[in-house]
Amino acid sequence: MIDLHTHSLHSDGTQSPAELMTEAASRGVTVIGLTDHDTVAGYAEATAAVQTTGVALVRGIEISARHHGRSVHLLGYLVDPEQGIREHCERLRRARVDRLESMVAAMARDGLLTWDEVMAVAGEGATLGRPHVADALVARGAVSSRDEAFSELLSASSPYYRPYWAPGLGEAIDLVHNAGGVAVWAHPRASNRGAAHSWEAIMTGVELGIDGLEVDHRDNPMPDRRLLADIVTEHRLVQTGSSDYHGSGKVNRLGENTTSPNMLERIAHKATMEVIYP
């Protein structure tokens, strides 16, 4: 069972990389992709857990990008962190922190939240994002769940929302390719959270050289999955399926969607870094 999209506490998951690997083993996952948002900080710990858990590791990253003003999440598989990835992560980390500080300052003026509360739930070393603000709002009792926070106080229509810098889609694809990795568009038709991209935008991604599409994801509606699979077939792309697991941060469960062995083999063949096997 191959699950190529998961998160640890180094971004917005709730488990350490080792805990994530251990749970993957308990759920019958044989290969896991660690794809924290804009950070590679979990690589060493996850790699060390390969032998003890028996779960193979695909080192990856979920890069925040933009296309025509809209957020795109790009999965980069088997990237070399020393080929521009670490520099990108640091730049985006600073942009995220600046953005969140501005959002929380606005909330603080209305008595909703403080920066100390956000840092208390984020933990040391996390790549800060809106999910940490959502968790702080839940802890404060301002909202009942992450979903409620995102639909109200953290939505793009909220007076507290602030944009932040992110690379364009083509720039992000080039970043992955220059680091020897494989670029896959994550949950491109995520309609249930208002993040569905147009078919025209997805085809632009194909023209820009994207390597694959995350087809089987709980946020892609079933009819759209069939259309995405048709694009994959027509353009000879990689097709993945994943859980987008965040621990207790989301309802997604490990292995609820999976990637076929032959697609993993194509990813490994195309990339310069290797899958780490027990």
Describe the structure.
The protein has 278 residues and is α/β, with parallel strands linked by helices. The chain is built from ten helices and nine strands. The strands form two sheets. A seven-stranded mixed β-sheet has the order 1-2-3-4-5-8-9. Helix 1 runs parallel beside helix 2 and helix 4 (115-122) crosses helix 5 (130-140). The longest helix has 29 residues, at 81-109. It is globular and about 55 Å long. The model has no long low-confidence stretch (mean pLDDT 94).
Question: Any descriptors?
Answer:
seven-stranded mixed sheet; 17% strand; 9 strands; 278 residues; single chain; two-stranded antiparallel ribbon; alpha/beta
Give a brief rundown of this model.
Residues 2-67 form the Polymerase/histidinol phosphatase N-terminal domain. It comes from Flaviflexus equikiangi. The protein is α/β, with parallel strands linked by helices and 278 residues long.
Topology of helices and strands:
Elements: E1 2-6, H1 17-26, E2 31-34, H2 43-53, E3 56-67, E4 70-77, H3 81-109, H4 115-122, H5 130-140, H6 146-151, H7 169-178, E5 182-185, E6 189-190, E7 195-196, H8 199-207, E8 212-216, H9 222-235, E9 238-241, H10 261-270
Parallel strand pairs: 1-2, 2-3, 5-8, 8-9
Antiparallel strand pairs: 3-4, 4-5, 6-7
Helix pairs in contact: 1-2, 4-5
